[in-house]
Automatic annotation (TrEMBL), chain A:
Residues 83-416 form the Solute-binding protein family domain. Keywords: Signal. SUPFAM superfamilies: Periplasmic binding protein-like II (SSF53850). The lineage of its organism: Bacteria, Bacillati, Actinomycetota, Actinomycetes, Propionibacteriales. PANTHER family: D,D-DIPEPTIDE-BINDING PERIPLASMIC PROTEIN DDPA-RELATED, PERIPLASMIC BINDING COMPONENT OF ABC TRANSPORTER. The keyword Cytoplasm does not apply. One of its GO terms (biological process) is peptide transport. It holds the Pfam family SBP_bac_5. The keyword Lyase does not apply. One of its GO terms (molecular function) is peptide transmembrane transporter activity. It comes from the Bacteria. It comes from Propionibacterium cyclohexanicum. This is Peptide/nickel transport system substrate-binding protein.
Automatic annotation (TrEMBL), chain B:
It is found in: Cell membrane. Pfam families: BPD_transp_1 (PF00528), BPD_transp_1_N (PF19300). The chain crosses the membrane at residues 12-32, 102-124, 131-159, 179-199, 241-263, 283-306. It comes from Propionibacterium cyclohexanicum. The lineage of its organism: Bacteria, Bacillati, Actinomycetota, Actinomycetes, Propionibacteriales. This is Peptide/nickel transport system permease protein.
Length: 508, 322
C-alpha cells in the first residue's frame, strides 16, 4: 500500500521541478523581445515553399519570402500602382514604344560582392526567355522582348517585337528578378541576389531564414535576421503569435479568429486588399455555359454580400470582375448582378432548364473554396439548379482534373497573380473562354498608345462582368497581424512579395 | 550455430517483406491521380507546358523502369532526389525522422513512467474507491483525442501563462534548452493519451498476476507483499504489457502526425502529408518504406525482448529449433 502513496507525489514533484526549470529558461532569453540585442523578425505564413527558384517553380511562397527581400528587380510598383526605381536609377521609353533604356544604379552589387551590371541583368532576362526550364507564365510576361543590349555596364536597352504596355509591370515582379549569374545552377537550394537580406537557411516545410546583407548597396534593413515560419494549421499560427513566438502573421487564414488579436497595445491588425480574385469559373467548353442566360442566372442567384459574410466574416471586397482595387483601371462592378432569385429562375426557364439542371462543382481543398461551395450549392438549389460538389486535393488532384483534363462544370479558386485578367484572353486556359472582342481589347491595351491603357482595360473588365464570363465572388482580404511596435507593413498586397524591406520598429 | 541460422532466417524474411512492400508502396503511390509537374507549374500553366515538363522529368516512362530505378538506388543507399526541390531524399528525411523519433520515444517513456505506477495502484486498489478513480481517469484519458489535449495545453501553458512556446521546434545541437522547452507540451500531450491506454493493460495484467498460484506461493513462503509484487508481479505482467507497448510505438511512428500538426513539429508525418499533396513521389515512397521498416524492427525487438525475459518462450524456441 505504501507503494502507491510513496510514488505518486514523487513523480508529481519531478515533473513540477523540470517544468519550473524550463520556465526559468524561457523567461531569460524571451524570444524576439525588443530589448534583445539581436533584432530578429519572425513572420508566420501558411504555404511553405518546396523549392527556392521562383523562375522554375510556381509556388507563390517562394516569391513571398524572396522577392525584394533577397532578390531585386529593375523597378518596383508602389502601393498606388506607380513605378519606383530599384536597380534601375531611371528609364526612358522610345516614342514608338519599341525600346526601353535603363540607367542602372551604379552602387548596386550582389550580396556576394560581385558587380551587378548590365550584363548580369541581361543574363537573367535572357534566361527567362531562352532556358527551357523557366516557367511558361514568366516567358509570356516577357515575350515582347526581342533582344537585350548592353551598350555599357551601366546601361541596359530592351528592344521589343511590339509595344507592350504591361512590360514594366512584369519587370517589377518575379519575371524581372536579377539573379547572380554565377549561381544560376544552384538557385533551387541557394538563392543569390542583391537585396537587403541574404538567404541563410531553409528547412523544407518548416522555416526559411534570411540574415542582413552587411554590404547592401542601398538603405540597409534594421533587422539582423528575418525568418519565415510555416504553419499548416492556422490555429497553431495564431497561438504562436499570441504566445510571442511570432512577430507577424502574414496572412490570417480564418478571419473569424481575428478577435483574439483585438488588444491594440499588443497587436495591429491590417485589413487591406490582395490581388486574389476568388472566381467561380464556368467551363465554357460545356454547351450549357454557351448560353449567357445560364451564366447570368447563376450570377443573379448568389447573394455575394451574404456569401462574403459567411465565408470570410465580411473581410474582403466585392469586385464583380477580374480587377483588384489596386490596379489603375479598377472600377466597382459588384452591382452588375444584384441578388435576384426570381430573375435567375425566369432566365433558366427561358434557357429551357425549367425542369431543373444539374452541375458539377469541383473545388480544391482550400478553406475558402469549400466554404463558398456550400453557400453556392444552397443558393443555386433555391433557383432549381442541383449542384453536386466534390473536393479535390490541392494542388495535385485539382490541377489534374480541372486544369489539365478540363473535367468540371464549375470550380472555385482564388487567382492571386497580378494582372491576371489577361488570362481570360487565352481560350486554352481552363475556363476555355473564347471571346474575340475581349481578346482584341487586351491586345489593344497591350500594344496601343500608353495613355489609352486604362480606358481600354476598364472596358475589358466591364465586358467580363456583363458577359457573366464567371461569377466573380469576391477579392480575398489581406489580413495581416503585426506586433504593435512594428510599422511599415504594406496594407494592400500589390505583388507576390511579403516585403520586409520597409518594416521598422519604433523601439529601435 | 542454431542462433546464427535463426538470425539469418529472420533477416531474410525481413528483407523479403521489405521488397514485397516496396512494390506495393510503389504501385499504390503511383496510382494517385495528378502529378508533380502540375504542382510545379501551378494553376497558371496550360496543359501543354505541364505535359512538356512531365516528359522532361521522366514521369511518362513505364512504371517498371521507374520502380527498378528507385529500388536499385535504395539498395545502394541512394533514395534519389525530391522531384520538387532537387534535394537528396535522405538528407530531407533525416532531420524529420529525428524529430519524430524524439517525440515518440520521449512520449512513450513518459507514458510508461506514468502508467506503470498508476496501473499497479489501480490493480492493487481495484476494490477501493481510489483504485476505481484511477481506472475511470484512464478511461477518460483514452476518450480525449491527442490533438485536443495538445490544444488545451497550448491555450493554458503557452497563450495564457506564456511559460512554454506554443509550437515549433529547435534542434538539440543548436540549443538544448530551447529543444527541451519546445518538446514539453507535445511529449506531455502524447503521453497523456498513451499512458491512459497503457494503464488499462498494466492494471489488467497485474490483476491476472495477483491471482496466479506462484504469487500466492510467494506470499505463503513469507515474501512481503511489496517484494512479491516487485519480484514476481512486475516481471510477469511486463510480458503482457510489452506486446501492447510495441504496438503503441509502431502506431505512433506512423500516427504522430496529429501531434506534429498541432505543435508544428517538422516531423516525418508532416513531410509525408505535404509530399503526398504535392505528389513528390520519391519522398513519399521512401518515407513509407522507412515507416514499414521501423514497424518491422520494433516488432522484432519486442519479440526478442519477450524471449529474453520469459524462459518459457526461450524453451519453446529451443524445442522448435531442435
Amino acid at each position: 500500500m505504501d507503494f502507491r502513496i510513496g510514488r505518486r507525489p514523487l513523480i508529481g514533484a519531478a515533473l513540477a521541478g523540470s517544468l519550473a526549470s524550463l520556465v526559468g529558461c524561457s523567461s531569460k532569453d524571451g524570444g524576439s523581445g525588443s530589448q534583445a540585442q539581436v533584432h530578429d523578425l519572425v513572420v508566420g505564413a501558411t504555404a511553405a515553399p518546396d523549392a527556392l527558384d521562383p523562375s522554375t517553380n510556381t509556388a507563390a511562397a517562394i516569391s513571398q519570402a524572396l522577392l525584394y527581400n533577397v532578390y531585386e528587380t529593375l523597378l518596383k510598383v508602389d502601393g498606388k500602382g506607380a513605378y519606383q526605381p530599384l536597380l534601375a536609377k531611371s528609364w526612358t521609353e522610345s516614342p514608338d514604344g519599341l525600346s526601353y533604356t535603363f540607367t542602372l544604379e551604379p552602387n548596386a552589387r550582389f550580396a556576394s560582392g560581385a558587380a551587378l551590371d548590365a550584363s548580369a541583368v541581361k543574363t537573367s532576362l535572357d534566361r527567362i526567355g531562352q532556358d527551357p526550364t523557366t516557367l511558361a507564365t514568366l516567358k509570356s510576361q516577357l515575350a515582347a522582348i526581342d533582344r537585350v543590349e548592353t551598350p555599357d555596364p551601366g546601361t541596359l536597352v530592351l528592344r521589343l517585337k511590339h509595344p507592350d504596355n504591361f512590360l514594366l509591370y512584369f519587370l517589377a515582379q518575379t519575371a524581372g528578378i536579377v539573379y547572380e549569374p554565377s549561381a544560376l545552377s544552384t538557385l533551387n537550394q541557394k538563392p543569390a541576389g542583391s537585396g537587403p537580406f541574404v538567404f541563410s537557411a531553409w528547412s523544407q516545410g518548416e522555416s526559411l531564414s534570411l540574415v542582413r546583407n552587411a554590404s547592401y548597396w542601398g538603405t540597409p534593413t534594421k533587422f539582423d535576421k528575418a525568418t519565415f515560419k510555416y504553419y499548416a494549421d492556422p490555429n497553431a499560427e495564431n497561438a504562436a503569435l499570441s504566445s510571442g513566438d511570432l512577430d507577424i502573421i502574414s496572412n490570417v487564414q480564418a478571419p473569424q479568429a481575428l478577435g483574439q488579436f483585438k488588444d491594440t497595445s499588443r497587436f495591429t491588425i491590417l485589413d487591406g486588399t490582395t490581388m486574389s480574385e476568388v472566381v467561380m469559373g464556368f467551363n465554357h467548353s460545356r454547351p450549357v455555359f454557351g448560353d449567357i442566360r445560364v451564366r447570368r442566372a447563376i450570377n443573379y442567384a448568389i447573394n455575394r454580400p451574404e456569401l462574403l459574410q459567411t465565408v470570410a466574416d465580411g473581410h474582403g471586397r466585392l469586385i464583380g470582375s477580374m480587377v483588384p482595387p489596386t490596379d489603375p483601371w479598377y472600377e466597382d462592378l459588384s452591382n452588375t448582378y444584384s441578388f435576384d432569385p426570381d430573375k435567375a429562375r425566369s432566365l433558366l426557364a427561358e434557357a429551357g432548364h425549367s425542369s431543373g439542371l444539374t452541375l458539377a462543382l469541383r473545388v480544391p481543398t482550400l478553406p475558402y473554396a469549400t466554404a463558398a461551395a456550400t453557400f453556392v450549392t444552397s443558393a443555386l438549389k433555391d433557383v432549381g439548379i442541383t449542384v453536386t460538389v466534390d473536393q479535390l486535393d490541392f494542388p495535385a488532384r485539382w490541377i489534374d482534373e480541372v486544369m489539365t483534363k478540363g473535367n468540371y462544370d464549375m470550380t472555385i479558386i482564388g487567382h492571386a497573380e497580378g494582372r491576371d485578367i489577361v488570362k481570360w484572353a487565352d481560350p486554352q486556359y481552363y475556363w476555355h473562354y473564347d471571346n474575340p472582342a475581349f481578346q482584341k481589347l487586351i491586345q489593344q491595351a497591350q500594344t496601343g498608345p500608353a495613355d489609352e491603357v486604362n480606358g481600354i482595360m476598364k472596358k475589358a473588365a466591364e465586358m467580363l462582368a456583363t458577359d457573366a464570363a464567371a461569377d466573380f465572388l469576391y477579392l480575398l482580404a489581406n489580413l495581416v497581424v503585426i506586433r504593435a511596435d512594428l510599422s511599415g507593413v504594406a496594407e494592400n498586397l500589390t505583388s507576390d512579395s511579403f516585403d520586409l524591406t520597409t518594416i521598422s520598429s519604433k523601439d529601435f | 550455430m542454431r542462433v546464427a541460422s535463426t538470425i539469418a532466417r529472420e533477416l531474410l524474411i525481413f528483407a523479403a517483406t521489405l521488397l514485397v512492400t516496396s512494390l506495393i508502396i510503389f504501385m499504390v503511390v503511383n496510382l494517385l491521380p495528378g502529378d508533380v509537374a502540375g504542382t510545379i507549374l501551378g494553376p497558371n500553366a496550360d496543359a501543354s507546358s505541364i505535359a512538356a515538363l512531365r516528359t522532361t522529368m521522366g514521369l511518362d516512362r513505364p512504371w517498371p523502369l521507374r520502380y527498378l530505378e528507385w529500388i536499385g538506388g535504395l539498395l545502394t543507399g541512394d533514395a534519389g532526389r525530391s522531384a520538387l526541390s532537387g534535394q537528396p531524399v535522405l538528407a530531407l528525411i533525416g532531420p524529420k525522422l529525428a524529430v519524430t523519433g524524439w517525440l515518440v520515444t520521449l512520449g512513450m517513456a513518459l507514458a510508461i513512467v506514468i502508467a506503470v505506477p498508476v496501473g499497479i495502484a489501480a490493480a492493487l486498489r481495484r476494490k477501493h474507491l481510489d483504485g476505481l478513480i484511477w481506472a475511470g481517469l484512464s478511461q477518460l484519458g483514452m476518450a480525449v483525442p491527442a490533438f485536443l489535449a495538445g490544444m488545451l495545453l497550448v491555450v493554458v501553458f503557452a497563450v495564457q501563462l506564456s511559460w512554454l512556446p506554443a509550437n515549433g521546434y529547435v534542434r538539440l545541437a543548436e540549443d538544448p534548452g530551447g529543444w527541451a522547452r519546445h518538446l514539453v507540451l507535445p511529449v506531455v500531450s502524447l503521453a497523456i493519451v498513451q499512458s491512459a491506454v497503457l494503464v488499462r493493460y498494466v492494471r489488467s495484467a497485474f490483476i491476472d498476476v495477483l491471482g496466479e498460484d506462484y504469487f500466492r506461493t510467494a506470499r505463503a513462503v513469507g515474501w512481503r507483499f511489496g517484494s512479491a509484487v516487485l519480484r514476481h508481479g512486475l516481471r510477469n505482467a511486463s510480458l503482457q504489457v510489452l506486446t501492447v507497448l510495441g504496438l503503441q510505438l509502431a502506431t505512433l511512428f506512423v500516427g504522430a502526425i496529429v501531434i506534429e500538426n498541432v505543435f508544428v513539429l517538422p516531423g516525418l508525418g508532416s513531410l509525408l502529408l505535404s509530399s503526398v499533396n504535392q505528389r513528390d513521389l520519391p519522398v513519399v515512397q521512401t518515407i513509407v518504406m522507412i515507416q514499414v521498416a521501423l514497424v518491422l524492427v520494433i516488432n522484432g525487438v519486442v519479440d526478442l525482448v519477450a524471449r529474453l525475459a520469459d524462459p518459457r518462450l526461450r524453451a519453446e524456441a529451443t524445442e522448435a529449433g531442435a
